[in-house]
Amino acid sequence: MADDEQDWRAVILELLGQRAEGATICPSDAARAAGGERWRDRMDDVREAAHGLVADGEVEITQHGEVVDPSSARGPIRIRRRR
Fold first, then answer.
1. Residue 32 contacts residue 39 (beta carbons within 8 Å)
2. Is the pTM of this model over 0.70?
3. Residue 67 contacts by C-beta under 8 Å, 6 or more apart in sequence?
4. pLDDT digits (tens, 9 = 90+) for 43-81
5. 3 falls in which pLDDT band (50, 70, 90)?
6. Cα distance between the two ends of the chain
7. How far apart are CA 22 and CA 2, in angstroms?
């Protein structure tokens, strides 16, 4: 189980590495992969880790296929490697 932001970042990047170039993941994919039975409780941790990866230039956050600022994104998001 992922315990801190670095763990969640690694989970996100690992899942994206298993996908085709340009493919996205839902934060719930990462939460389910490493969050155990209480994966729903880990969604904020995953989103926070994704925000850190955006700041590092590793990934992009999208909504409806468009890149969005993670600090203003509300509702469902997707994560993809930066193009």
1. yes
2. yes
3. 60, 61
4. 999 999 999 999 999 999 999 999 999 888 889 999 999
5. confident
6. 29
7. 25
For residue 83, which of 71, 65, 1 has the smallest C-alpha distance?
65
- Look at strands 66-68 and 78-81 and give their pairing: unpaired
Q: How far is CA 16 from CA 22, 38, 72, in A?
A: 9, 22, 23
The CA distances from residue 53 to 3, 6, 27, 38, 79, in Å, are: 17, 10, 13, 23, 10
Domains, in order of start, for the chain: 5-81 (1.10.10.10)
Confidence tier at 9 by pLDDT (50, 70, 90): very high
What is the spatial distance between Cα 44 and Cα 64, in angstroms, rounded to a whole number? 20
